[in-house]
Specification:
Elements (H helix, E strand, L loop, with lengths): L6 H12 L3 E2 H9 L6 H13 L3 E6 L2 E6 L3 H14 L6 H11 L4 H14 L18 H9 L1
Antiparallel strand pairs: 1-3, 2-3
The structure holds zinc ion.
Zinc ion binds next to loops.
Length: about 150
C-alpha cells in the first residue's frame, strides 16, 4: 500500500510527472508561477516525497534531477481506491453522479463514459450488497428491520 501524500506534495509531483528529470530550481520556478511557497518549503516537500518513495533524486553531472517512482495514473488510482474503500458500495453510483455534476467534460469525454456504461450495463447486478460495518451505513439497519 502506497503512503498517502498531502495536497501540497501532490502539486510538486505534478511538476515532476509533467517533466521528469527537472532540477530542484526548475521545480521551484515552475511552482512559484502559481503558488507563493518559499524555495525551502518546496525543498522540504521534495525531501518528504523521497522518503515516501514517490520520487528519486539522481546526480547527473553537477546537478541533481528528480524522477517519479510512482506514475500519475497509479497515484490517482490509489486515491480513488481509498475513496471507494471508505464508502458504502451502494453509494458508488451517487459518487460518479456527483463527479459528473462537479466536473467539466468535453463531448468526447462524455461519449467515452456513455460507451463504458453501456458496455457494463448488461453484466451489472440488480442490486449491491455492501461490506460496511453494521454501524457505518444504513443498509444494515434496513436489512435488519426487514428480517424482524
Ligand atoms: Zn454499506
Amino acid at each position: 500500500m502506497e503512503q498517502m501524500i498531502s495536497a501540497a506534495e501532490w502539486q510538486v509531483m505534478r511538476v515532476i510527472w509533467a517533466c521528469p528529470g527537472r532540477t530542484s530550481s526548475q521545480i521551484i520556478t515552475a511552482l512559484q508561477e502559481g503558488v507563493d511557497w518559499q524555495a525551502t518549503t518546496i525543498k522540504t516537500l521534495l525531501g518528504r516525497l523521497r522518503k515516501k518513495a514517490y520520487l528519486e533524486m539522481k546526480k547527473e553531472g553537477s546537478q541533481y534531477r528528480y524522477y517519479p517512482l510512482v506514475e500519475e495514473r497509479e497515484h490517482v488510482q490509489i486515491q480513488l481506491q481509498n475513496l471507494l474503500d471508505t464508502m458504502c458500495s451502494t453509494k458508488n453510483g451517487e459518487l460518479v453522479g456527483q463527479l459528473l455534476e462537479m466536473g467539466q467534460f468535453s463531448r468526447s469525454d462524455l461519449q467515452v463514459l456513455a460507451t463504458q456504461i453501456a458496455n457494463q450495463l448488461p453484466n451489472a447486478p440488480h442490486s449491491l450488497q455492501c461490506s460496511c460495518l453494521a454501524g457505518q451505513c444504513t443498509c444494515h439497519i434496513m436489512r435488519g428491520k426487514s428480517s424482524i
